[in-house]
Amino acid sequence: MTTSEQSAPAVRPGAVRFDGPEPSYDDAGLVFIGRVRSPWASRDDCPKNLSDARERGQPARVEIDARWRGALTGLGVDRWVFLLTWLDGAERDLALQAPRHADGPRGTFTLRSPVRPNPIGLHLVRLLSVDLDAGILTIDAIDVRDGTPLIDIKPYLASIDAPPE
Amino acid sequence: MTTSEQSAPAVRPGAVRFDGPEPSYDDAGLVFIGRVRSPWASRDDCPKNLSDARERGQPARVEIDARWRGALTGLGVDRWVFLLTWLDGAERDLALQAPRHADGPRGTFTLRSPVRPNPIGLHLVRLLSVDLDAGILTIDAIDVRDGTPLIDIKPYLASIDAPPE
């Protein structure tokens, strides 16, 4: 690891970069299947997490590109689903981060920060409406910037997605 | 959508492919940060989901490559985390699938099947031991083949990862 003092700017005191040359980030490739349409125009407007987003009481939308709409078949209103997003714009090279809410630097894999080797967002949301033909889902809340790319939708299953007992 | 009869082999009756030419799958790139070491040598050996894996009572291991180990700092034993894996080998082009357990074809986004436009696996597991220096995590169970690439580790937070109330 390299201390933030030795390398690039714009990391908070205490943040630490991964050591060595940047990897090429091409071990596997993603296709964007749609976009999130949210009330949040910039990262600064974004709620800091989904609880915060729910408190603001503003629904959002997901737009699925035409090619992928068939895969929505059977998605029902009031269902909970995980959205996986691509948090473009997030840095990928911090091993330790110093979030405002914490009293010191924390390992990236103990945080839900967008800054991580693969900046994938995981968001549990409720479906308020589903338009299969138009490829539009309305969701109860979201904590990403307008236009954020979508990479997957998975049904929430309490039997595997909650700790047993 | 194209019916399975018109196109490639090896899909079950009722499965339907997405229409049109394959996309290039290069909207964004992933880096593999490690590998899952599981008791399951082939896809046929794999438990069908994490509940099934837990019933088999066989722990597994996650090996994190050296570059990324600093990001494990602070990960504690007995913590629940989501692992995100890259389910290499899974097809990416089915809109509808006909799982054995279902009575008919279902939309891919209503299933947790590895077959999806971006074959990312989401697995909630418990940490049994953490060796930061060696980059080795022992986990209670896993439902992927030995050698499956790892792309992220996220802490489970009941406040955002479980449906409210």
From TrEMBL, chains A, B:
One Pfam family from the record: TrmO_N
Keyword Chaperone assigned: no
A molecular-function term among this protein's GO annotations: methyltransferase activity
Keywords, in A-Z order: Methyltransferase, S-adenosyl-L-methionine, Transferase
Domain TsaA-like: 30-165
Residue span of region Disordered: 1-22
This protein's record includes keyword S-adenosyl-L-methionine: yes
GO BP terms: methylation
Family listed: Belongs to the tRNA methyltransferase O family.
Protein name: SAM-dependent methyltransferase
